[in-house]
Every structure is written in C-alpha cells, then in structure tokens.
Specification:
about 230 residues; single chain; 9 helices; mainly alpha
C-alpha cells in the first residue's frame, strides 16, 4: 500500500515468525520430555535461525516513527499467542482450526494498512474484508479439492459461493478505493479457479501441488490489491 523499509521488515518478520513456530514447538516438546531424536536437532536448528531472523527484522523495523510500529508488532505477537493456544486446543485437520488460522493474520493487515495510510479511511476494512473472503474460500476449496469425488456437493458450492461474495464485496468498495478494479479481477480469477478445480474436467493433483498453486494465487491477490490501490490512487 505504501512501500517502505518498515513495511518490508514487518511482512518478513511475520513470515519468519510463522515459520519458526512449528520447529520451535517440536523442539520444546522433545526437550521438555528429556528426549532427543534426529528431528530434534533439525527442529532446534531451524527454530534458532528463524527466531534470530525474526528478532533482527523486528530491530530493522524500528526505523521511522515508533508508535505505529509498536502497535503493529504488538498485534503480531498477540496473533501468535492466540494461534498457539488454538493450535494446542483444537484437533489437527478440523475445519474450525483451519479457518481460524487463515483469518488470524487479518488484524495484522489492518494495522499495517492503517499505519501506511496518511488519514483514517475505509481502506483497512476493505482490505481486511477482501482477505477474509479470499482466505475462507481458499480453505473451503482446498478441503473440497483434496477430498476429490468423496467431497460433498455442499462444500463445493460453499467454496464457490464465498468466492462470489468476495467479488461482490470488492465491487461494492471499489470506486473510491481502487478504481482500476484490479482486486475484483483477482477475486474473479479465484472463483473461476474454484469452479474449474472442483469440476469433473479438472485433473487430479497431489496435495503438494495444490499447496503451491494456492500460494501462487495468494501472492497474486496481495500484489493485485497493492497495485490496484498504490498505482491508481
């Protein structure tokens, strides 16, 4: 939304912090149980490197006015704590756990956009709404896609319906915020992808490739939202 060293640092520390969580949890579980496996050494190594990177990036992000940065950092830390609690208390693979994990980064996006924008506006809420529709529709689509022919027709219709609602939401907020309608086109691509991917014509994909595909679509959405606002404001 407003390219800067701080924005880049915050995005990168969110990524490294997220990647550090799983090996950190695994290493802590093994060490607290006084057990050591080959995986323990790898977990400790990855957790150490990624945690150090997160700390370094948090220091780099302090360049500039302090208050908005600490608000953003506090938001990220709060999200991390809530995610850890939810991850510990819910069953792996449950829909609720995946949906909570998908939408939990939206408050961070709200804070980042609000700090980047010079005046209070509806832009943070619009971006958060787009991300919410995108995240929920992606989780529903991936679950239905991996279930294949065994997946229920209701879950497939729901995945496409949430995507269509995302397109409608993007159109509603488009005029004053991103007149180029680029984010709307990105959401429309997601709806077409979901409808085709769950049709009888789509070829079967391994879970790994479904994940790579969805990462690419997520990157597309982020870039299109940023370009739609920044390049045409």
């Amino acid at each position: 939304m407003a390219p800067s060293l701080r924005g880049t640092a915050v995005v990168m520390l969110a990524l490294t912090g997220f990647l550090a969580y799983r090996p950190l949890r695994l290493a802590a579980r093994d060490l607290l149980a006084h057990k050591s496996y080959p995986r323990t050494r790898w977990a400790v190594a990855f957790a150490t490197v990624l945690s150090c990177l997160t700390v370094v990036l948090s220091v780099v992000g302090q360049v500039g006015p302090a208050m908005p940065y600490w608000t953003t950092l506090a938001t990220f830390c709060a999200i991390g704590i809530v995610f850890a609690i939810v991850d510990h208390r819910t069953r792996p693979g449950s829909l609720g756990r995946e949906l909570i994990g998908a939408v939990m980064t939206i408050p961070l996006a709200l804070t980042l956009v609000e700090n980047a924008h010079p005046h209070p506006s509806l832009l943070p809420l619009a971006v958060a709404g787009l991300l919410a529709f995108k995240s929920v529709s992606t989780v529903l689509y991936v679950r239905a896609r991996l279930a294949g022919s065994e997946g229920s027709a209701i879950s497939k219709v729901t995945a496409v319906s949430v995507g269509i609602l995302g397109v409608a939401f993007s159109l509603m907020v488009a005029d004053p915020l991103w007149p180029a309608h680029i984010p709307t086109l990105a959401m429309l691509v997601l709806v077409i992808r979901a409808a085709w991917g769950m049709s009888a014509h789509a070829k079967s994909l391994a879970p790994k490739w479904v994940g790579i595909q969805e990462f690419s679509y997520s990157l597309m959405i982020v870039l299109f939202v940023g370009i739609g606002y920044w390049a045409f404001r």
